[in-house]
Amino acid sequence: MIQSLQSVWGGSLSADRQAQRLEQNIRMYIVYAIKSIEHKYIYVGFTANLERRLDEHNLGRNKSTKPYKPYKIIYTERFDGRKKARIKEKYLKSGCGKEFLKSLGW
């Protein structure tokens, strides 16, 4: 198993780091968009634990979302791997992605 992981990541990572990367790639991630209830503000992110992450936003534990709390979820999508989730997150943060979120009627 380690031999195959070394070939995937170039062999320069420790066994612990290789296992951590493998876990990240097979773990489920959720890309989400939240909208401020009181302001015209939408935030996009991804997480493995949506409930915990929404609580962090609503409790003001995130610097960029704290001034606009509270939030409601307006979009979610599940992905089997961090890389795929990050690609979708980047899209939703783009101009086209923001237009898509606005088109949802929120």
What portion of residues belong to β-strands?
Answer: 15-25%
Largest sheet features: 3 strands, antiparallel
If helices are DSSP runs of H or I spanning 4 or more residues, what is the number of helices? 5
Number of domains: 1
The N- and C-terminal alpha carbons lie at a distance of 47 Å
What is the rounded Rg?
17 Å
**What would the average pLDDT be, to the nearest integer?**
88
CATH structural class: Alpha Beta
CATH fold assignment? GIY-YIG endonuclease
Oligomeric state of this protein: single chain
Any idea what the shape is?
A: globular
Number of DSSP strand runs:
3
Structural class: alpha+beta
Listing every helix as H and every strand as E from the N terminus to the C terminus, the arrangement reads: HHEEHEHH
Strand order of the largest sheet: 2-1-3
**Which regions contain 5 or more consecutive residues with pLDDT less than 50?**
1-9
Name the CATH superfamily assignment. GIY-YIG endonuclease
Helix-residue proportion: 40-55%
CATH hierarchy: architecture: 3-Layer(aba) Sandwich
Question: Main traits of this protein?
Answer:
106 residues, alpha+beta, GIY-YIG endonuclease, 47% helix, disordered N terminus
Please provide a written account of the structure:
This protein is 47% helix and 24% strand. It is of the alpha+beta class and 106 residues long. A hairpin with a 5-residue loop joins β1 and β2. The relative contact order is 0.18. Mean pLDDT is 88; it is low at 1-9. α1 packs across α2 and α4 crosses α5 (95-103). The protein has one domain: GIY-YIG endonuclease (3-Layer(aba) Sandwich), CATH 3.40.1440. It has helices spanning 2-9, 15-26, 50-58, 82-93, 95-103, and strands spanning 28-36, 42-47, 71-80.
